[in-house]
């Protein structure tokens, strides 16, 4: 469960009953995940939008997705 609040996103971890928030980059990634973007598409978006190199973008996206998975906010496709 998530809501866009200004340029940030607020997420609710239902299991832990905990709210999480993210900066504008995280908000953009959550919105793209909700649209069905793949990890590679998220990396490309970060590279193009925030003018970082591919390696930096990939590390950041993987870290973001890992936190989302830890809180059961997303489920990897291979677990469906």
List the keywords.
50% helix, 80 residues, alpha+beta, 3 helices, Arc Repressor Mutant, subunit A, three-stranded antiparallel β-sheet, single chain
Helix-strand blueprint:
Layout (H helix, E strand, L loop, with lengths): L1 E4 L2 E6 L4 E5 L1 H11 L4 H12 L3 H17 L10
Antiparallel strand pairs: 1-2, 2-3
CATH names the topology as Arc Repressor Mutant, subunit A
- Biggest sheet strand order reads 1-2-3
> For the terminal residues, how far apart are their CA atoms?
18 Å
What is the domain total for the residues?
A: 1
> How many beta strands in the DSSP annotation?
3
Number of helices: 3
The CATH class assignment is Mainly Alpha
- Roughly what percent helix? 40-55%
| Low-confidence residue ranges | none
- SSE order in H/E notation? EEEHHH
Radius of gyration: 12 Å
- What about the largest sheet? 3 strands, antiparallel
Q: Which structural class matches the secondary elements?
A: alpha+beta
Strand content: 15-25%
By CATH, the architecture is named Orthogonal Bundle
Explained architecture:
The protein is α+β, with helices and mostly antiparallel strands. It has one domain (2-79): Arc Repressor Mutant, subunit A (Orthogonal Bundle), CATH 1.10.10. 50% of the residues lie in helices and 19% in strands. The chain has 3 helices and 3 strands. It has helices at 24-34, 39-50, 54-70; strands at 2-5, 8-13, 18-22. Strands 1-2-3 form a 3-stranded antiparallel beta sheet, with helices on one face. Strand 1 (2-5) and strand 2 (8-13) form a beta hairpin. The longest helix is centred in the C-terminal third of the chain and has 17 residues, at 54-70. The protein is globular. The two termini are 18 Å apart.
